[in-house]
Protein backbone atom coordinates (compact mmCIF):
# COMPACT_ATOMS: atom_id res chain seq x y z
CA UNK A 1 0.00 0.00 0.00
CA UNK A 2 1.32 3.45 -0.91
CA UNK A 3 2.09 5.79 1.97
CA UNK A 4 2.12 8.86 -0.27
CA UNK A 5 -0.48 11.27 1.13
CA UNK A 6 -3.16 12.54 -1.24
CA UNK A 7 -4.00 16.25 -1.31
CA UNK A 8 -6.86 17.89 -3.18
CA UNK A 9 -6.32 21.53 -4.11
CA UNK A 10 -9.89 22.80 -4.19
CA UNK A 11 -10.54 24.27 -7.63
CA UNK A 12 -13.23 26.91 -7.24
CA UNK A 13 -11.96 29.65 -9.54
CA UNK A 14 -9.78 31.50 -7.04
CA UNK A 15 -6.99 32.18 -9.54
CA UNK A 16 -3.73 30.57 -10.54
CA UNK A 17 -3.16 27.62 -8.24
CA UNK A 18 -0.58 25.74 -10.30
CA UNK A 19 2.23 26.99 -8.04
CA UNK A 20 0.46 25.41 -5.07
CA UNK A 21 0.06 22.11 -6.92
CA UNK A 22 3.75 22.08 -7.87
CA UNK A 23 4.89 22.99 -4.35
CA UNK A 24 2.80 20.25 -2.74
CA UNK A 25 4.11 17.74 -5.27
CA UNK A 26 7.69 18.79 -4.47
CA UNK A 27 7.19 17.96 -0.79
CA UNK A 28 5.87 14.49 -1.48
CA UNK A 29 2.11 14.71 -1.90
CA UNK A 30 0.01 13.10 -4.63
CA UNK A 31 -1.94 16.19 -5.71
CA UNK A 32 -5.23 16.57 -7.60
CA UNK A 33 -6.70 19.93 -8.63
CA UNK A 34 -10.45 19.45 -8.56
CA UNK A 35 -13.78 20.65 -7.19
CA UNK A 36 -15.07 17.08 -7.10
CA UNK A 37 -16.84 16.38 -3.82
CA UNK A 38 -15.92 12.71 -3.59
CA UNK A 39 -12.22 13.37 -4.15
CA UNK A 40 -12.19 16.37 -1.81
CA UNK A 41 -13.76 14.34 0.99
CA UNK A 42 -11.59 11.26 0.47
CA UNK A 43 -8.19 12.97 0.22
CA UNK A 44 -5.80 12.87 3.15
CA UNK A 45 -5.57 16.65 3.02
CA UNK A 46 -7.62 19.48 1.52
CA UNK A 47 -5.81 22.66 0.42
CA UNK A 48 -8.07 25.72 0.11
CA UNK A 49 -6.42 28.51 -1.93
CA UNK A 50 -7.65 32.08 -2.16
CA UNK A 51 -6.70 35.10 -4.26
CA UNK A 52 -8.53 38.40 -4.68
CA UNK A 53 -11.69 39.74 -3.08
CA UNK A 54 -13.01 37.95 0.01
CA UNK A 55 -16.66 38.03 -1.07
CA UNK A 56 -15.91 36.82 -4.61
CA UNK A 57 -13.90 33.92 -3.18
CA UNK A 58 -16.73 32.96 -0.83
CA UNK A 59 -19.19 32.97 -3.73
CA UNK A 60 -16.83 30.67 -5.60
CA UNK A 61 -16.50 28.36 -2.62
CA UNK A 62 -20.26 28.15 -2.22
CA UNK A 63 -20.70 27.41 -5.93
CA UNK A 64 -18.77 24.14 -5.50
CA UNK A 65 -20.33 23.32 -2.09
CA UNK A 66 -17.00 24.15 -0.44
CA UNK A 67 -18.45 25.11 2.97
CA UNK A 68 -20.14 21.73 3.37
CA UNK A 69 -17.05 19.86 2.16
CA UNK A 70 -14.92 21.69 4.72
CA UNK A 71 -17.48 21.12 7.49
CA UNK A 72 -17.69 17.39 6.76
CA UNK A 73 -13.92 17.03 6.71
CA UNK A 74 -13.44 18.90 9.97
CA UNK A 75 -16.24 16.95 11.66
CA UNK A 76 -14.25 13.82 10.86
CA UNK A 77 -10.92 15.38 11.93
CA UNK A 78 -9.74 15.37 8.30
CA UNK A 79 -7.02 18.00 7.74
CA UNK A 80 -7.73 21.26 5.89
CA UNK A 81 -5.18 23.99 5.08
CA UNK A 82 -6.40 27.43 3.96
CA UNK A 83 -4.07 29.93 2.27
CA UNK A 84 -4.37 33.74 2.01
CA UNK A 85 -8.07 34.47 1.33
CA UNK A 86 -8.57 30.76 1.95
CA UNK A 87 -7.54 31.53 5.53
CA UNK A 88 -9.68 34.66 5.76
CA UNK A 89 -12.67 32.60 4.60
CA UNK A 90 -12.51 30.59 7.83
CA UNK A 91 -13.55 33.63 9.88
CA UNK A 92 -17.03 35.14 10.33
CA UNK A 93 -16.83 37.82 7.66
CA UNK A 94 -14.88 40.64 6.08
CA UNK A 95 -15.06 44.43 5.91
CA UNK A 96 -13.61 44.33 2.41
CA UNK A 97 -15.69 46.27 -0.14
CA UNK A 98 -17.55 44.32 -2.80
CA UNK A 99 -19.38 45.19 -6.00
CA UNK A 100 -22.10 42.68 -5.12
CA UNK A 101 -23.79 41.60 -1.93
CA UNK A 102 -21.61 40.85 1.06
CA UNK A 103 -21.07 37.16 1.65
CA UNK A 104 -20.40 35.84 5.17
CA UNK A 105 -17.39 33.73 5.97
CA UNK A 106 -17.41 30.08 6.97
CA UNK A 107 -17.50 30.92 10.70
CA UNK A 108 -15.02 28.27 11.73
CA UNK A 109 -13.36 30.92 13.90
CA UNK A 110 -14.76 34.13 15.39
CA UNK A 111 -13.45 37.39 14.02
CA UNK A 112 -13.73 39.83 11.14
CA UNK A 113 -11.19 40.45 8.39
CA UNK A 114 -10.29 44.16 8.50
CA UNK A 115 -8.23 46.62 6.48
CA UNK A 116 -4.62 46.76 7.67
CA UNK A 117 -3.93 50.09 9.44
CA UNK A 118 -0.60 50.64 7.68
CA UNK A 119 0.69 53.63 5.71
CA UNK A 120 1.35 51.38 2.72
CA UNK A 121 -1.04 48.68 1.54
CA UNK A 122 -1.13 46.09 0.22
CA UNK A 123 1.36 44.40 2.47
CA UNK A 124 3.44 42.90 -0.30
CA UNK A 125 6.73 41.17 0.31
CA UNK A 126 8.68 39.12 2.82
CA UNK A 127 8.01 39.35 6.56
CA UNK A 128 9.05 37.44 9.63
CA UNK A 129 6.46 35.85 11.89
CA UNK A 130 6.14 35.15 15.61
CA UNK A 131 5.26 31.48 15.93
CA UNK A 132 4.11 30.02 19.28
CA UNK A 133 5.88 27.28 21.21
CA UNK A 134 4.99 23.78 20.11
CA UNK A 135 4.07 24.77 16.55
CA UNK A 136 3.92 21.99 13.99
CA UNK A 137 3.64 24.10 10.84
CA UNK A 138 6.67 26.26 11.64
CA UNK A 139 8.89 23.58 13.15
CA UNK A 140 12.36 24.28 11.78
CA UNK A 141 11.40 27.61 10.13
CA UNK A 142 10.32 29.67 13.15
CA UNK A 143 12.77 32.46 12.31
CA UNK A 144 12.31 32.51 8.54
CA UNK A 145 10.50 35.04 6.36
CA UNK A 146 7.36 34.31 4.32
CA UNK A 147 5.76 36.02 1.34
CA UNK A 148 2.61 38.09 1.92
CA UNK A 149 0.27 39.84 -0.54
CA UNK A 150 -2.79 41.29 1.18
CA UNK A 151 -4.52 44.48 2.27
CA UNK A 152 -6.86 42.86 4.80
CA UNK A 153 -6.25 40.62 7.77
CA UNK A 154 -7.53 39.47 11.15
CA UNK A 155 -6.21 41.82 13.81
CA UNK A 156 -7.67 40.13 16.91
CA UNK A 157 -7.91 36.52 18.01
CA UNK A 158 -10.88 35.99 20.30
CA UNK A 159 -11.45 32.23 20.40
CA UNK A 160 -11.47 31.08 24.01
CA UNK A 161 -8.18 29.56 25.19
CA UNK A 162 -7.46 26.15 26.63
CA UNK A 163 -9.24 25.64 29.91
CA UNK A 164 -12.58 27.07 28.78
CA UNK A 165 -14.30 24.80 26.27
CA UNK A 166 -11.25 24.05 24.12
CA UNK A 167 -9.48 20.78 24.92
CA UNK A 168 -6.35 22.08 23.18
CA UNK A 169 -5.67 25.78 22.67
CA UNK A 170 -5.24 26.84 19.03
CA UNK A 171 -1.70 27.90 18.14
CA UNK A 172 -1.74 31.40 16.64
CA UNK A 173 1.19 32.92 14.74
CA UNK A 174 1.44 36.70 14.35
CA UNK A 175 3.07 39.14 11.94
CA UNK A 176 3.12 42.94 11.80
CA UNK A 177 2.23 45.53 9.15
CA UNK A 178 0.97 48.74 10.70
CA UNK A 179 0.08 46.63 13.73
CA UNK A 180 -0.16 42.93 14.57
CA UNK A 181 -2.32 40.57 12.54
CA UNK A 182 -2.87 36.81 12.47
CA UNK A 183 -0.34 35.20 10.13
CA UNK A 184 -1.32 31.57 10.76
CA UNK A 185 -3.50 29.35 12.90
CA UNK A 186 -3.17 25.69 13.89
CA UNK A 187 -6.44 24.45 15.37
CA UNK A 188 -6.80 20.67 15.35
CA UNK A 189 -7.47 19.50 11.78
CA UNK A 190 -7.89 23.09 10.54
CA UNK A 191 -4.77 25.11 9.74
CA UNK A 192 -4.32 28.27 7.72
CA UNK A 193 -1.75 30.87 6.71
CA UNK A 194 -2.24 34.47 5.58
CA UNK A 195 0.98 34.29 3.55
CA UNK A 196 1.64 32.14 0.49
CA UNK A 197 3.88 29.20 1.47
CA UNK A 198 4.00 28.07 -2.16
CA UNK A 199 5.66 31.40 -3.01
CA UNK A 200 7.89 31.55 0.06
CA UNK A 201 10.92 29.66 -1.23
CA UNK A 202 12.59 26.97 0.87
CA UNK A 203 10.89 28.13 4.09
CA UNK A 204 7.46 27.79 2.50
CA UNK A 205 8.27 24.35 1.13
CA UNK A 206 9.46 23.28 4.58
CA UNK A 207 6.17 24.47 6.10
CA UNK A 208 4.15 22.60 3.48
CA UNK A 209 6.25 19.51 4.08
CA UNK A 210 5.51 19.80 7.81
CA UNK A 211 1.79 19.84 7.01
CA UNK A 212 1.97 16.99 4.50
CA UNK A 213 3.80 14.83 7.03
CA UNK A 214 0.86 15.18 9.45
CA UNK A 215 -1.46 13.64 6.86
CA UNK A 216 -0.04 10.13 7.26
CA UNK A 217 -0.17 10.01 11.06
TrEMBL record:
InterPro entries hit by this protein: Class_I_gatase-like (IPR029062), GATASE (IPR017926), Imidazole-glycPsynth_HisH (IPR010139)
Localization per Swiss-Prot or TrEMBL: Cytoplasm
Main location: cytoplasm
Entry function: IGPS catalyzes the conversion of PRFAR and glutamine to IGP, AICAR and glutamate. The HisH subunit catalyzes the hydrolysis of glutamine to glutamate and ammonia as part of the synthesis of IGP and AICAR. The resulting ammonia molecule is channeled to the active site of HisF.
Subunit note: Heterodimer of HisH and HisF.
Glutamine amidotransferase domain: residues covered: 8-212
Residue numbers annotated as active site: 84 (nucleophile), 196, 198
EC assignment: 4.3.2.10, 3.5.1.2
Signal peptide, first to last residue: none
Pathway the protein takes part in: Amino-acid biosynthesis; L-histidine biosynthesis; L-histidine from 5-phospho-alpha-D-ribose 1-diphosphate: step 5/9
SUPFAM superfamilies attached to this UniProt entry: Class I glutamine amidotransferase-like
Keywords: Amino-acid biosynthesis, Cytoplasm, Glutamine amidotransferase, Histidine biosynthesis, Hydrolase, Lyase
Superkingdom: Bacteria
A Pfam short name: GATase
Reactions catalysed according to its record: 5-[(5-phospho-1-deoxy-D-ribulos-1-ylimino)methylamino]-1-(5-phospho-beta-D-ribosyl)imidazole-4-carboxamide + L-glutamine = D-erythro-1-(imidazol-4-yl)glycerol 3-phosphate + 5-amino-1-(5-phospho-beta-D-ribosyl)imidazole-4-carboxamide + L-glutamate + H(+); L-glutamine + H2O = L-glutamate + NH4(+)
Protein's name in the database: Imidazole glycerol phosphate synthase subunit HisH
